[in-house]
Fold this sequence. Notes:
The complex is a heterodimer.
Chain A: H1 14-29, H2 31-51, E1 54-55, E2 63-64, H3 68-75, H4 77-108, H5 115-127, H6 130-140, H7 147-154, H8 169-194, H9 198-206, H10 211-239, H11 243-248, H12 260-269, H13 274-302
Helix pairs in contact in A: 3-13, 4-8, 4-10, 5-8, 8-10, 9-10, 10-13, 12-13
Chain B: H1 3-14, H2 16-59, H3 63-66, H4 81-89, H5 92-123, H6 129-138, H7 144-157, H8 165-168, H9 176-188, H10 191-199, H11 204-215, H12 217-233, H13 236-241, H14 250-260, H15 265-285, H16 287-300
Amino acid sequence: xxxxxxxxxPWLNNRQRxxxxxxxxxYLFLLPTLIGLVLFSLxxxxxxxxxxFTNWNILLPPQWVGLQNYQTLIEQDLPHKVLWNTIYFTxxxxxxxxxxxLGVALLLNQQLRFAAFYRAVYFLPVVSSAVAASLIWTWxxxxxxxxxxxxLESVGIPGPAWLGSTTWAMPAVIIMSVWKGFGTNMLIFxxxxxxxxxELEEAAMIDGANRWQRFWNVTWPLLxxxxxxxxxxxxxVSFQVFEQVFVMTEGGPAYATTVLGLFIYLNAFRYNNMxxxxxxxxxxxxxxxxxxxxxxxxxxxxxxxxx
Amino acid sequence: MSRSAxxxxxxxxxxxxxxxxxxxxxxxxxxxxxxxxxxxxxxxxILMVMPFLWMLSTSLKTQGAALTYxxxxxxxxxxxxxxxxVVQSFPFxxxxxxxxxxxxxxxxxxxxxxxxxxxxxxxxxxxxRQVLFVLLLATLMIPGxxxxxxxYILFSKLGWVNTxxxxxxxxxxxxxxxxxxxxQFFLTLPQDYSDAxxxxxxxxFHIFTRIYLPLAKPVLATLALFTFMNHWNEFLLPIxxxxxxxxxxxxxxxxxxxxxxxxxxxxxxxxxxLSIIPIFVLFVLLQKYFVRGIVMxxxxx
Lengths: 307, 301
């Protein structure tokens, strides 16, 4: 029985026509996605790259200036400081976040009573907006009236000025970010832990391995794919840190917490240096790409996909 | 059987009392361990909620009580009026309405556009499927700060600055996270469903709307929740696009509120609390969908 597939294209046979129809329909299904890709991701990536070679204040037409923006980024001191701040934030935030997330996940994986309740409590900061969380922590870190310095003083440590101090502002932002962010990674680790077959742990236990040995020789190797995923995502997110800095310190004091995300925002929308901001955005993009690719390269050395 | 197990079994038959004492010792050790774990988890949980409690406590204080040292945790008497004063001095209801509108419109668009795309990637044959899918996933690596400037130019050309369109229209045009999440779910459905439907003469659109979408309700709920939360909590876009107070969302409103009430922490905390409450309620009610979303994206990523 030959089924006639309607619509035109008389030069095609039925099978080709069916394939062609399906492809056309698939692209119809994908139309919103394709438009989104062009208008909101790939297009902007290309346009942004072009803008980064111009001098543009939005009001007047852009002027082509070649590599001048990138040259300024290299020559001036502030961009260096900004880059260093971003690396500082990432270098502390990512390991702390992951360590806390893994630690809590291991604890909650011990068949605790009320585990769902604890999980919810640890996840609560993730659902609250970064702005709200930043306002709360600004107040917690208040050097004169805040409970953090009160606690420090009561154990005999003179509390620093936190957000007002060039030394302590960044650690304060990092503490807040770990509190706010580790819940997501905790859930991913928990799921990873639950994916490890119980038999393996039991086998190690029967062989007389203690808790620590079981962790290092069974749990950790089998968890490395999860750890890798968490590491990549955390680095990408950390390099883009913006909201907490914007609200808590606005990059201050004395640029001590001005990170790339804030630097780009300020140049684009406060100083109307679109071209310069775009070039800084491209530096951010390049770093994120480089880190991700490097991690995928190094992945084979320490991750274990045997199971 | 391992040696230690045999040994203790032998001892058990020879010296029952010592065996028993070993058991009680073990049980004690185990109980102590459990107690320690519970203790650590409890202390951690308290540390997690402490900032929220501090917010609640401050929001119910007088200005003077908020600025006392040493800090007091229990406001006496609680100043419930703070909330009324905050709502009167700042249009929180308008902000909340704007946030809600944007979050709902964004969520609806995101569900429609990503589920359509996900079905095509999961169940249809077309040239370029692999390339497109990889390309889509690769967009996850593009920082928002890179696309922010060109997108701003686009929307300002459209005259959309200081409107809500830039905040929810992009959600109508797909997204890597959502498409991936739903595609993964569609792939777990047995192909027989769609084959059977195809034999009955149903086209792809029919199979998609009548079979796949109804089965995908849990994963759609998960995506809806995440999209809603992300729109509700979004800060970078509204701070760029919204300048009129009556257009602002809760997050931007709150950040301006901060400038105005710089040191009036009792008002500031009351406003913050008001902005957090809706999302907390949503989270408590729909917790399992949150967990599922993160687990699915993490495990299969």
